Amino acid sequence: MEDTMQTQMTMGERLTRYEIAQETIGFMMAIRTDLIYKEKDKTTPDAEKIAQWEAEFKQFADELHYLHLDDEIEIQRVLDEYCPIVKADYEGRRAAA
């Protein structure tokens, strides 16, 4: 019984990390969407920036699509690489409000 609980807890933890990674990628996509929207709203938008952010958005969409629960290495990479960016964006927006 204890082994079953440990396995379930481990699976629960894995699922939580997977869902956090999915949400984090979603936030990265939202950040790019906001940048694109603000740039397009300018009098003279920078087409190169928009193209770059659109390409990054597509990359994030692909990462989200191909992210798998059993790919712990990719989940960890997403958490390590993107969580600090999302946190900094959130704190920047909160300070500006």
Give an account of the 3D structure.
With 97 residues, the protein is mainly α. Helices cover 87% and strands 0% of the residues. The chain contains 3 helices and no strands. Helix 1 runs antiparallel to helix 2 (47-66). The mean pLDDT is 92.
Task: Give structural attributes.
single chain; 97 residues; mainly alpha; flat
Beginning-to-end CA distance, first to last residue: 51 Å
**Please, what is the average pLDDT?**
92
C-alpha geometry: flat
Oligomer: single chain
How would you briefly describe this protein structure?
The protein has 3 helices and no strands. By secondary structure, the chain is mainly α.
Write the layout of secondary structure elements.
Blueprint: H1 2-40, H2 47-66, H3 72-96
Helix pairs in contact: 1-2, 1-3
